[in-house]
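G., before I forget:
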Amino acid sequence: MLEWVILTYGVIFGAIAVYLVTLWLRVRGAERDLKRRE
Amino acid sequence: MNTPKTLDMHTWPAAYWPRLAGMPGQRAAQILGIVTALTMAAAVFAAMRVPPDTATGDLIRILYFHVPSAWLAFLSFGVVALASLVYLWRRDRRWDVIALASAEFGVIMTALTLISGSMWGYKAWGTWWVWDARLTLTLVMFLVYVGYLMLRAYVGSDQKRARYAAVLGIVGALDIPLIHFAVEWWRGQHPSAIIITDSGPKLAGSLFPPLLLSVLAFTLLYAFVMIVRVRLEQQRDQIAALQAEAA
């Protein structure tokens, strides 16, 4: 049962981590774009 | 979930939160990010230390992140509704940006609420899904806000997009009280409320602090994501303003 709990935690924190990484990539892209245009 | 910018974007004022766009905003995000990561690690540690439940054994540990996910879904969409109301009243882009940032994260947290609940149900009930009132209404809320993000992605004019999205954002949030009271109003399979009840929290004394810690960690995560996501939208508006200026 503990394996199932760990798998659930993995899904929750994995999804949050993926979102945070994509957010960071989007921020980095926007920062570069903004610097280039300024 | 990119929001396409159109030529009338220059009607929005750019860099509407100068402090958030600059160093203070970046510093705040960094500090909040570190505090959130530490609190989250402590919450996981605390959840793994609670004694197994007599009925569901170790499965009780899923609750420590299922409930905070649901809390964040409610908080996110509550903020969407409030910001949308203020947007319709003031027509200030900043409130539209807050609604967008909150809706995006709310959709993810609702999906995680449904998934973690399903994973718990698979072991506890022997099935991934039942058409219980609370589960179904949560699924409806998820679909409404996926629709909200789609609407934002496909409506061309900025003013129109913000207006339509605000209306949908308010309507969708009407589902929040329905989800909360669903376990009382309709008999279903979802366990009844354990935290916000008339007689106070029903969780045993030693199990309550770890849950509070998880709720705190997730709330900090929400604040962190909001700062970063709002900064991003502001940067995009600045880029769109520069594009319009150059055209």
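Residues 1-11 of chain B have pLDDT under 50 and may be disordered. The interface with chain A takes residues 2, 44, 57-59, 61-62, 65, 69, 105, 108, 111-112, 115-116, 119-120, 123, 221, 225, 228-229, 231-232, 235-236, 238-239, 242-243, 246 of chain B (CB under 8 Å).

More on Monday.
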